[in-house]
Amino acid sequence: MSFVLETSRELDRVERRVLGALRCVDATTSAPLRYALRIDAPAGARIQRNRSGLFVIQEWAPPVDHATAFLGPPPGPADMLSLTVGISDPTGHYLPRLVRVELPRDASPSGTALPGSLFRPLQVPMYPSCIGRLGPNWAALSLSVREIDGGEALGGVLLRVVSAGQVLARGLSDWRGEALVPVAGIPVTTGLAGPCDVITTQIEARVEAFADPAGVTRTPQADVIAGRAPPVRPLVDPVAIEAARARLPQASAVVGLVAGRTLHVSLGISLV
After folding, report:
1. How far apart, in whole angstroms, are the C-alpha atoms of residue 117 and residue 148?
2. The model's pTM
3. What domains can you pick out in the chain, each with its CATH number?
4. CB 118 within 8 A of CB 103
5. 69 vs 112: CA distance, rounded Å
6. Would you say 244 and 263 are in contact if contact means Cβ atoms under 8 Å apart?
7. Helices then strands (H, E): number in the chain?
8. Angle at Cα 90 formed by Cα 143 and Cα 128, nearest 5°?
9. Which H or E run contains 251?
10. Per-residue pLDDT tens for 192-247?
């Protein structure tokens, strides 16, 4: 029996290069958001949503040889490039935000567990708007953020709820200076006197507000009352604001959080 070996020929080649991926999640529950969000990417970037709900970065124009970079050692800080995209919710349940992706990401198999790995989607928390949904046992902060001197509503302000040195929740203010910050995990203790007796547990916390003058919007109260939105809505990067919070205008207040209750708080920030 004899065999004839034929030389194989490449008829066509299909290559797919993935530079990274984004997974949008609910900021309170960390549950992935399955319905369609909108991605606004700069010219030269191509981002598509796959069946798993990930926004996959398939192409970006800046002159960097990603294929070569991914085959080599992990990139150093000097080799990193930032791709900034806007993410918004057409339904209005979540506020729009910016997110920055550092490229190229590490494609080495040994680094798959690291946050900068190509094989780990970048998790993007989406913060609820004032019409966002609340869980039955969540504490909630309904916040109003104003400029102290002129009284304008401040949009794009980062809000944090901190207790015992731990950040319990984050949020953003909309163009009206209003924000809804849900806080999950506040314990509810049932009393022993009867099945209907419930003792609510209150947790002391501090709500903090940080405003970046370069990105915050100011809307006069007359326009807020009349419902006249500014031509440009707040669009900020919460990660960048938090990283620079020590040098930004800020305000804070001490609050008591109780599961199942909504607390209204007003904060004034001086941008001067």
Report:
1. 43
2. 0.83
3. 20-126 (no CATH), 139-269 (2.60.40.10)
4. no
5. 16
6. no
7. 3, 18
8. 25
9. strand 250-258
10. 555 666 566 899 999 999 999 999 999 999 999 999 999 989 999 999 999 999 99
Instruction: In whole angstroms, give the CA distance from residue 263 to residue 39.
Output: 33
- The full length of the chain comes to 272
3-state helix, strand, coil in the chain (%, to 5): 10, 40, 50
* Amino acid sitting at position 72: G
Pick from 132, 15, 230, 71: nearest CA to 143: 132
Q: Quickly count: other Cβ atoms within 10 Å of residue 263's Cβ.
A: 17
Tokens standing for 35?
A: 């319905």
Which residue's structure tokens are 């419930």? Answer: 198
The candidate with the shortest Cα–Cα distance to 212, out of 164, 144, 157, is 157
Indicate if the alpha-carbon torsion angle 178, 183, 187, 193 is positive or negative. Answer: positive
Structure tokens at 223: 């326009």
Using a 10 angstrom Cβ sphere, with 0-12 exposed, 13-18 middle and 19 or more buried, the burial of residue 134 is middle
Instruction: Give the residue among 213, 209, 206, 147 at the shortest CA–CA distance from 172.
Output: 209
Q: What are the start-end ranges of the H helices in the chain?
A: 66-71, 221-226, 238-243
* Amino acid present at 114: L
Q: How far apart are the first and last CA of the chain?
A: 91
Q: What is the pLDDT of residues 39-84, one digit of tens each?
A: 999 988 999 999 888 999 998 876 455 444 444 444 444 445 789 9
